[in-house]
Amino acid sequence: MTAMRAAFLDTTTALLDEDPRTALVLADISASQLAPAAHRHPDRVLNVGIREQLMVGVAGGLALTGLRPIVHSYATFLVDRAYEQIKLDLDHQGVGAVLVSIGASFDGSAEGRTHQSPGDVALFDSLGDGWTVRVPGHPDEVAPLLRNATATDDPVYLRLSEQRNAQAYPDADRLRVLRQGGTNAPLVVAVGPMLDPTLAATEGMDVTVAYTHTPRPLDTAGLRALAGTEVVLVEPYLAGTSSAIVSRAMADVPHRLLALGVGQTDLRRYGDPADHVRWHGLDASGLRRSISAFLRSARS
């Protein structure tokens, strides 16, 4: 079990014990690990079986009664498969839940395309600006982000990953500068687990590197304050997912934008997550090639 997933399970178990408003809805995934909590709280831990659409619908009903539901599965089942229920039973009803996914873009790549969901954050964007999206880059960021989410009634998506950075930054809901470049240096924004590859890729470059685990809402005020002429986005989901937000935020500022992330093309290949990271150019060497070419083109 990955460290982020373990942190989620431990924190969820504690929340169920501490807060009678917290509920949990599952579709078999992680049910065995959460069985002790289900035994203690049978009225607030519901496993609907392999029925992901029902799982989200039940969460909407629980939210209407005043409970704060946590909903959990692989991203491809939780978001892609149950998107209509997210749209209707949560978003359209004006109620919130905390949707917690594992699998991310291709953590489950060995299981094939059915377990890959690089487009999940883009789907939430299609619902408007009401959803908070958290993408932790370290296991120690998971518990505070989950606790923060359950303390509200807002709709929140928490995207867990097997990829992780070496250090946690729990307070990085706004852009946090981790490497300062010179005056008007290009700004490189790394989201979640893309921080360490980005730092390695930009070693020795005159760029400012900023990190966030909260791409929605994106810290556009921080973006404007830090950005020079060039902005590079490095995201662990579909490339360009945040491009429109950056473009709107800087509409009155001349700038060039490079959006890096998972490519739009279905590679139709198996392989482990590290293979997919490399194939999509999201390892340190691939990022360095892309960023270097972008910055060279600005000078030519």
TrEMBL record:
SUPFAM superfamilies: Thiamin diphosphate-binding fold (THDP-binding), TK C-terminal domain-like. Residues 2-167 form the Transketolase-like pyrimidine-binding domain. Keywords: Transferase. CDD domains: TPP_PYR_DXS_TK_like. It is an enzyme of class 2 (transferase). Its EC number is 2.2.1.1. GO terms for molecular function: magnesium ion binding; transketolase activity. It comes from the Bacteria. The keyword Glycosyltransferase does not apply. This is Transketolase. It comes from Micromonospora parathelypteridis.
